[in-house]
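Design a sequence for this backbone.
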């Protein structure tokens, strides 16, 4: 691979292009200026690490000392995530996307790589509040209490992720509008393709004031497999102010390492080795970590941390063993340390309660959702968003999983 730096909208971007000139339009997401990322290591050179990797230590071994260094560390984590987990997210020119609005629907058109694709998102508007409204983007759909969201003055946008990239089964790889544009051999997994589509939707919202949506007050959600996708979109799109993954399980809130340990202890949980054969949510070679998750240079606590310093709220369910509730709780506590280090612990929350069906938000979690939506999307709220709770009885075993501490950042 050739590594070269170009300037895009004043932001340094690392472009990966193949020696054969295949034109697969792969590139990493925009990086902050002055954040060059080292060349990615090979799989064979990755060391074994049974602990959750340190989110504060750069690839060169140095450790963060200042809060402002998070941008560059985040850029490294984002590149590692694309290289080994999700595949690369294309970054077309801003003028490549346009939008048109009619009958409470926005149609997004993208022209890139010599191709044109279009998709339509329906919008449900609240009867309270004023245009332009804040909006919650639902990956596939929103399984939150949509009636209550509308009462809070929040519009709901349905994002058709299955049209962007299919997720029927393992045979779905390379199918969907994203791959019509960039080729069915593109490294981007279905979830990274969805993240790309969400970014193009936001481009269109910014250019289509007739839609009546405030692009500066956007949230994103999804449940189960679509919750994994919501986290991916939130991690790789800085214009999303609040990310609310609902019961995403493996590849969402749950750590690959911890879930493997849970499986070894006899729990019926989803693991890396299982998930790569089920569907196309991750890049095609992610399966090389199937029996060696300890070699992953990152884990899900670091994917969650890509949302920092923006807001993140996990809504989880202890009645679903497959989601590995213990793994999700341990991972969330590790991720929360990033927000703590940045001095904003109230911007990352985790609520895990059982006694309800999968993807059916219980009334007991509405206060948490309301607090985060009002504070970080609607605005002008003093709601308490310091929320880290579970009814599982599990605690974070620091000695078992964490061999690093929270740095005191200036």
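Sequence:
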């Amino acid at each position: 691979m050739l590594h070269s730096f170009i300037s895009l909208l004043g932001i340094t971007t690392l472009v990966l292009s193949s020696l054969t000139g295949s034109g697969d339009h792969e590139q990493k997401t925009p990086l902050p200026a002055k954040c060059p990322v080292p060349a990615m290591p090979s799989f064979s050179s990755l060391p074994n690490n049974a602990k959750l990797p340190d989110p504060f230590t750069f690839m060169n071994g140095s450790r963060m000392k200042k809060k402002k260094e998070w941008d560059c560390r985040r850029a490294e984590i984002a590149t590692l995530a694309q290289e080994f987990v999700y595949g690369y997210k294309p970054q077309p020119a801003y003028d490549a996307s346009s939008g048109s609005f009619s009958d409470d629907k926005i149609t997004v058109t993208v022209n890139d790589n010599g191709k044109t694709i279009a998709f339509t998102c329906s919008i449900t508007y609240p009867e309270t509040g004023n245009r332009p409204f804040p909006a919650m983007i639902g990956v596939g759909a929103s399984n939150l209490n949509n009636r209550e969201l509308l009462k809070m003055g929040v519009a709901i946008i349905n994002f058709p992720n299955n049209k962007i990239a299919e997720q029927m089964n393992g045979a779905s790889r390379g199918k969907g509008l994203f791959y019509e544009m960039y080729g069915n051999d593109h490294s981007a997994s279905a979830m990274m393709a969805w993240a790309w589509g969400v970014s193009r939707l936001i481009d269109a919202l910014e250019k289509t004031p007739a839609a009546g949506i405030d692009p500066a007050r956007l949230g994103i959600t999804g449940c189960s497999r679509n919750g994994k996708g919501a986290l991916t979109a939130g991690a790789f799109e800085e214009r999303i102010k609040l990310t609310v993954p609902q019961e995403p399980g493996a590849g969402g809130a749950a750590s690959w390492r911890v879930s493997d340990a849970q499986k070894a202890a006899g729990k019926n949980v989803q693991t890396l080795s299982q998930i790569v054969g089920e569907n196309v949510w991750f890049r095609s070679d992610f399966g090389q970590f199937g029996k060696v998750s300890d070699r992953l240079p990152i884990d899900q606590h670091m994917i969650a941390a890509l949302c920092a310093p923006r807001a993140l709220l996990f809504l989880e369910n202890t009645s679903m063993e497959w989601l590995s509730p213990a793994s999700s709780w341990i991972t969330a506590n590790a991720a929360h340390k990033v927000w703590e280090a940045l001095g904003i612990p109230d911007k990352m929350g985790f609520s895990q309660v059982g006694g309800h069906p999968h993807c059916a938000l219980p009334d007991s979690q509405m206060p948490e959702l309301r607090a985060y939506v009002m504070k970080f999307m609607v605005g002008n709220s003093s709601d308490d968003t310091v929320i880290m709770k579970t009814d599982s009885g599990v605690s974070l075993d620091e000695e078992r999983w964490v061999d690093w501490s929270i740095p005191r950042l200036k």
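The chain has twelve helices and twelve strands.
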